[in-house]
Every structure is written in C-alpha cells, then in structure tokens.
Write a structure and sequence with these properties.
The complex is a heterodimer. Chain A is an all-alpha fold. Chain A is about 65% helix and about 0% strand. Chain B is α/β, with parallel strands linked by helices. In chain B, strand 4 and strand 5 form a beta hairpin. Chain B is globular and about 55 Å long. Classes of the chains: A mainly alpha, B alpha/beta. Bound molecules: adenosine-5'-diphosphate and magnesium ion (MG).
C-alpha cells in the first residue's frame, strides 16, 4: 500500500502525547464528573448536599466548638462542647480502673502497640519472634498486668474495668481465638469422618443461628443457675467465651468458602509429592485459602469489634457503655451527642485501620496468579 | 504374573528389576467400570507411553499408581510395596514417585524455588541450604535457573511445566508419571517440555507417560500401550506398534491422530 499521507515507515511510529481532553485535571473532571447530562446533574446535587450537610456538621464539630475549660459552665453551646470528653476521658479509656494502677493498663497497651508495629511495618527484623511473643507470652503478661493478683500487683476486679480497655480486650481475645477455632471447624466440616463433620456442623449452626445478645444473656443469666452455689464465673470471661465462639462459627464459614475455592489439582500435586494431610493443609491449602478470604476474615473481625458493644446487656461497660454512663450523669446531662461522636470516632479508627491493613496485605500477597 | 500375586518371596526377588506391577486391577467410579483387569509390569528404567481415546482410563490408570485414585480389586505393587490403605505407606510411595500434571498444578503462592524445596524440606527433612542447592541444580537441568525467585503466575506455560518437572525431580523419585504434560501448552512451547522429558528419559529414569505426542513415543519409548474403554488393548515396541498395529481399534485410533 502506497499511502501518501504516511509520514513514518511502518513499525517506527513514535508514541505521541495524548490530547489535553484525556489527561490532567481537565481530563479527570470531564471523565468523572461531567461526562453526560446526568453526571452534570449528579455533580451539582452532590455539591449542594455537601453544602447543606457537611458544612454545618464541620462547623458544629470544629469551628464553633468549645475546647477549653473544666466544667459544663465553660460550654457556650454554640457548637460541640469537647470539655465533656476531656473531663471524662479517663473513664472513656479505663472505666473505673483505680487511678494509681493505670500505669499497668498503659504498659499493656504500649507493649502491644510496639509489638504490632514491629510486626506490621515492613523491614523490621525478627518478625517471627515478635509474632510468637505476641501470641504466647504477651497474653499471659497482659493478664497479670491487667488483673494482677501476683508479683506484688494489686488485684483489680474485672467489674472495675471499662471503656476502650474492655472493648479492646474483648475484641482482641475474640479475634485471636476465633481465627484458629474457625479454621479447625472449617476443616472439620470438610472432614471425611462423619462424626467429626457432624460435630462441627452442629457447633457452627448452633452458634450462627442464635443472636449474640441471646448468647450473652444466656451466659450471664442461665449459666449461674447450673453452677454450684458460691462458684462465681467471671462476667467478663463469660462474655469473652461467648464472643469468641460466636465469631469462630462465622469465621468457620468464611474459611470454608476459601477452602472450596482451592482447585483439586493443588491437593493432588501436594499429595503426589508425599506430603501428609496436615502438611498439605498447612503449606499449600490454608495459605491460599486464607489469602483468598482476607476480606471476609477482616469483615468478621470488624463485625466482632463492633459487636463488643452488646456486652452492655450483661452489665459490662465498653467504650459505648461508659459514654452512655457519662451522658446520663446528672452533672453532665445534655452532652449525649458529643459522647456518641467520641464513641463513633473511637470505633471508626480501629475498624478503618483493620480495613486498610487488610487491603495492604492483599496487595502484598499478590503473586500474579489469576484463577 | 498370576503366580506373583500369591508368591511373595518371588515378588521381593523380582523387585530388584521391577518398578511397578499391576495385577488384575479393577476400578469403578460408582457403577462405572473404568479400569478392567489391568495387567502391567514395568521394569526399572523402562519408558512407557500410554495412549488411547479420551475417556479410556489412561489418567485413572497412572493415578492409581500413586494412589491419587483407589482401586477396588487386584494388586498394585510399586517399588516392592503393595498399595493398601496404610496412609504412612502411601505417603512413602508417593515420595518415591514423581507426577507431572496436564495443568502443571504449581503452588501459586510459593516462588519457583520454594515450589521445588517444599517437599524435600518437609518430607525428606533435607536442610534448607542443601535443598536450595539441589533445587537450583534441577532448575538448571530444566534450563530455567534464572526464574527461581519468580512466582509461577509470572511464567509461560512451557516454563511452568518445566518447573513442575523440576519440582518432582527434587525428591529424587525412582519413577516418574506424566499425565498429558503437553496437552495444555501452546504449540511453540511443546518442544521445550518434550526436550526436557527426552533428556530425563536418557538419564535412565523409569517413566510412564500418557501422551499423544507420537514423535516422543517413537524416539524414547521402550513400549507403547494402547488403552480403550478401560482395557489395555495392545502393547508393543514403538516401531511395531506404529507400523504394524494388531487390533482394529488401534488402527482406527492411529489413523485418527496421525491424519488430524
Ligand atoms: N472422579 C470421577 N468420577 C466419575 N467418573 C470419572 C471420574 N474421573 C474420571 N471419570 C470417568 O472415567 C473415565 C476415564 O477417565 P480418565 O481416566 O480421565 O480418561 P483419560 O485420561 O483416558 O481421558 C471417563 O469416562 C471419565 O468420565
Ligand atoms: Mg486424562
């Protein structure tokens, strides 16, 4: 073909820059906000809604809010009064934990924070040992620090615990217990042995079929009826077991979904190499299955984290519980909204962090394999 | 062959040169009789090609040899050990018998090197540094040492299949089973895998290959087996098999694959 308009010999055409309508701010706006008349309308509507809703909310929370002061008389009531949150902040975090023992809670938090940071930040060495430390010695250390009763530490009854501290204790114990129990249940549910399968199915369906509130109620009201006179089973411990079992049942189904997605060929290739069943599961099937269901696992974790608020039902005061307690204090009536904002922000920070970390993990574990 | 079934002393003395023995083996999938009275003896160092129409039971046959499928009647003796329900014994036999699959079945979450060292480390208890070294040797043998740190998903089909072969070889197997190793490959990649297999055959490995690569059969096979509807219809040396097939079904099959 002798085309006279051709300026380049075939195969030597250079890459030209795209026209300005396709790239940059203009291109982005055109493609995302103003592509069609409908997009125009939606964009304008969105801007209007932001003006009507978000601007006053920000004004209330930040610009007209009161920050300084010690009592409710320092509140001008033109916006939020964060004096309330400041005055109650110790209770929000520690509940009624004795003030002179607060360092124990702080130390527990700090050890964990440093440990988790070392585990999650890439490049920090000794990840394996940090992980082992956090899983085995740390819970024991945390127990003695928080509960006391040994090493010269004053015992602090769990009835004095409260606030964010209780939320974190329940959520973390629930998370750490539910994943392994859930994995065992999921494997059991796929077992070839009918008895094991039946037990796992029964366990999962029983816990999944009952609302968590019912579980907690039964744990606090019915349990003592069956216990011998005088035996007192710690309320927090009962809640912990209830929450852990409940989440484990959900976790089992999430993990089972992952197991089902692993092709038969993976099992066969691993078996053909002479790997025994536990090794096939540990090295080949579970790593792939768990990676596949990271979003579901984290979803369950987040659900569990927020479900901890239900322990209010059995008389434990988690973050939301103490906020409500403070908001109904006669000296501080009328600050419920501020309280709920504090609780919401508190929960959101932890849940959002989990969500982001799971996205990071998914990207990190990506190996270019498409199913 | 039938005496061997009863006389175990004979078996042990024979196991020096016999790698695999299948004695009157039957298998059913539910009602479906998939393997019918299979009698097969494979000597050490022998290279066997199994062919036959799709659905004739070729895969099932070789998968019975490492117990990925269970047979219901007859005996299968691999490397002098009879396959029973004993899980430990099955794992032991599997560690001596390598298998290469049509769809490679590499472990996508592990690097090429980790794919190769996993079984030596956890089954053979080889120290990691030694396992790494041996795996690199095998990867060099299949001509992809430079891909060791990549993940399987980043390799071409032909490269993946060569990794799969290397992964099996890292266990130093006495027997290698291949189930249509080139069927899932693009035409331009078939040769690199066949070359690897030819090289392996020349090293004296006992090999059972299900394949329709008749060129491969002619070059390296000691014996070609033709299966149809769960039975071994005919087996012969490649020259005789291709030039002078005995049964009508073999003739029909050969005419179909050679003209297509
Ligand atoms: N797991 C199974 N359950 C039931 N039938 C099967 C199963 N696997 C294979 N078959 C059937 O057994 C026959 C032989 O299969 P296969 O050994 O894979 O044949 P080939 O490898 O020769 O194509 C086919 O008809 C197939 O449909
Ligand atoms: Mg097949």
């Amino acid at each position: 073909m002798a085309d006279t308009t051709q300026d380049y010999t075939p195969g030597s055409h250079p890459d030209l820059p795209p026209p300005s309508s396709e790239v940059g701010v203009i291109g982005w706006l055109r493609h995302n906000l103003f592509a069609t008349p409908l997009d125009w309308a939606l964009t304008i509507l969105a801007v209007y809604l932001i003006y009507v809703l978000v601007v006053p909310a920000l004004d209330w929370m930040l610009f007209s809010a009161d920050w300084a002061g010690e009592t409710r008389d320092d509140c001008s009531r033109e916006g939020a009064c964060w004096v309330f949150a400041r005055v109650w902040s110790k209770v929000f975090i520690y509940g009624r934990y004795p003030v002179e023992e607060l360092w124990r809670v702080n130390l527990t938090f700090i050890i964990q924070f440093v440990g988790l940071a070392a585990l999650m930040i890439p490049g920090v060495p000794y990840k394996k040992w940090t992980g082992i430390f956090l899983l085995i010695p740390y819970p024991i250390i945390a127990f003695f620090l928080l509960y006391g009763g040994a090493f010269g530490l004053e015992p602090v009854e769990t009835s004095l615990w409260g606030g964010l501290m209780v939320t974190l204790v329940i959520a973390e114990v629930g998370i750490v217990a539910s994943l392994p129990i859930g994995i065992v249940l999921a494997l059991g549910r796929r077992s070839k042995m009918p008895i094991i399968r039946a037990i796992c199915v029964a366990f999962i369906e029983l816990w999944r079929g009952v609302p968590l509130i019912t579980v907690l109620f039964m744990a606090s009201v019915m349990f003592p009826l069956f216990m011998p006179e005088g035996v007192n089973f710690d309320k927090l411990l009962r809640a912990l077991i209830g929450v852990a079992m409940f989440s484990a049942a959900y976790m089992a189904e999430v993990v089972r979904g992952g197991l089902q997605a692993i092709p038969k060929g993976q099992y066969e290739a691993a078996q053909a190499l002479g790997l025994s069943y536990p090794k096939v599961m540990t090295f080949i099937v579970l790593p792939q299955a768990l990676k596949l269901v990271i979003p579901g696992i984290v979803n369950t974790f987040i659900g569990l984290f927020k479900d901890t608020t239900l322990v209010l039902i059995i008389g434990l005061f988690d973050l939301l519980g103490v906020v409500q307690l403070a908001a109904t204090n006669p000296d501080w009536l009328g600050f419920a909204v501020e309280g709920y904002v504090v609780a919401a922000v508190g929960f959101w920070i932890f849940c959002f962090a989990m969500s982001r970390y799971s996205m990071y993990m998914e990207r990190k574990l990506e190996t270019g394999h498409k199913r | 062959m039938s005496e061997a079934a009863q006389a175990s002393p004979l078996q042990t003395s024979m196991s020096e040169e016999i790698a695999i023995q299948m004695i009157d083996v039957h298998k059913w999938y539910g009602e479906f009789h998939v393997l019918k009275d299979i009698k097969l003896t494979v000597n050490r160092g022998e290279r066997i090609v199994i062919c036959g129409p799709s659905g004739s039971g070729k895969s099932t046959l070789i998968r019975c040899i490492n117990r990925l499928e269970e047979h219901q009647r007859g005996q299968i003796i691999v490397d002098g050990v009879e396959l029973t329900n004993d899980v430990k014994q099955i794992d032991a036999i599997r560690s001596e018998v390598g298998m290469v699959f049509q769809h490679f079945n590499l472990f996508p979450h592990l690097t090429v090197l980790e794919n190769c060292t996993l079984a030596p480390i956890w089954v053979r208890k080889t120290p990691k540094s030694q396992a790494d070294e041996e795996a690199m040797e095998m990867l060099t043998r299949v001509k992809i040492p430079e891909q060791a740190q990549k993940y399987p998903g980043q390799l071409s089909g032909g490269q993946q299949q060569r990794v799969a072969i290397a992964r099996s070889l890292c266990m130093n197997p006495k027997i290698m089973l291949f189930d249509e190793p080139t069927s899932a490959l693009d035409p331009e990649m078939i040769k690199e895998v066949l070359d690897t297999m030819i090289q392996l055959a020349e090293s004296g490995m006992t090999m059972l290959c299900v394949t329709h690569e008749m060129g491969f059969a002619k070059t390296v096979a000691d014996r070609v087996i033709f299966m149809d509807e769960g039975e071994i219809i005919e087996q012969n040396r490649p020259h005789e098999f291709f030039n002078n097939p005995q049964s009508d079904r073999t003739k029909l099959f050969l005419s179909q694959i050679l003209t297509h």
